[in-house]
Amino acid sequence: MRRTQKRSRQAFTLIELLVVIAIIAILIGLLLPAVQKVREAAARMKCSNNLKQIGLAAMNYESGNGILPTGGIVGGTNFGTYSSYPGSQASTMAFILPYMEQDNVFKQFPQAYFTTPSTVAPWAYSTAPYSSDGNQTGPLPGTQVQIKTYECPSDNPNQNASSGMIDFYAAGDNCTNTFNTGSVCIDYIYDLTGTMAARQPGAGNYIGCAGGLGGYMGLANDSYRLYPGIYYVNSKTKLTDISDGTSNTLAFGETLGGNGITRDFHMAWFGASGMPVAWGLQDASSSQWYTFSSRHTGGIVLFSFGDGSVRGLRKGISTAAYRAIAGRADGYVLTENN
């Protein structure tokens, strides 16, 4: 007669279960920062690649046209009243579309928007139907396209602003076509809702560098170092104009738009123009619509230089060094001692 021996199975006690849960929680806590670091590293790499493509597209544009693309087209005498001046306000990002494998988008726009001087209406007020908010906004069809290469994956600009977009940007101007050292002239359009929602312009994180304060030469001295850069309103910069060397001069950089974490405005990729460096470099907590800025960790903001190379500058860079590399022909070169 065979005897079978029964073995009793013991379940986990409550204490053992809590210990296991605690160990798992600790492991997740240790793993999460590593995952976030990997994710941010991937986002920064993609952002760097975007800037490199933009920089090389500008160089390819120069090869075909003899000059670098303009920092934005503006005409007339009064920047403050959209109805009183011509000029499409098309930005550098719009000009390089064919060199960014976006020729299908570029062909949607009338070529009059890319001629200088231009007599067409500003792109953000060019077509009906207009919005009912008093801003008379009728963005040019095609400007609503969201171009991933113009967006930093650390930010997702098409979802992270509450009020609207900056559609025109002139460094060193007081909106009367007169230079003012403390001014940046902008025009902005409110966030479009309702029947106009489908015409919301596509946002972007990248903009050309206008130098210290755009194309103005009056402050080009050792006290201020507010030298003209490569991309400013109506610029027609040649490579020979960049006497500091393309590898030493800022061409494009990142921007988040306005007012820190509670950002209310982005840049529209079709508009804007060139960003000055006169007011420093910022991270996401203190970004302004008139500063280069980013969401990358460590206060890093990525820039494409004139030769297409991409490097990061850290918030806290000295004013002298930052302005020196923004100017295209000031005789200053960024070194470790700056």
Write the layout of secondary structure elements.
Layout: H1 14-65, H2 92-95, H3 103-106, E1 164-173, E2 179-190, E3 203-204, E4 206-211, E5 250-254, E6 265-268, E7 274-276, E8 281-283, E9 292-294, E10 300-305, E11 310-314, H4 319-326
Parallel strand pairs: 1-6, 4-7, 8-9
Antiparallel strand pairs: 1-2, 3-6, 4-5, 5-10, 10-11
Compose a concise summary of this entry:
The chain has 338 residues and is an alpha/beta fold. Helices cover 20% and strands 17% of the residues. It comes from Gemmata palustris.
Tags for this entry?
alpha/beta; 20% helix; DUF1559; transmembrane; 4 helices; globular; Pilin-like; membrane; five-stranded mixed sheet; four-stranded mixed sheet; 338 residues
Folded structure, characterized:
With 338 residues, the chain is of the alpha/beta class. It has one domain. Helices cover 20% and strands 17% of the residues. The chain contains four helices and eleven strands. A five-stranded mixed sheet has the order 7-4-5-10-11. Strands 2-1-6-3 form a four-stranded mixed sheet, with no helix packed on it. Strands 8-9 form a two-stranded parallel ribbon. Strand 10 and strand 11 form a beta hairpin. The longest helix is centred in the N-terminal third of the chain and has 52 residues. It is globular and about 85 Å long. 44% of the residues are buried. The mean pLDDT is 83.
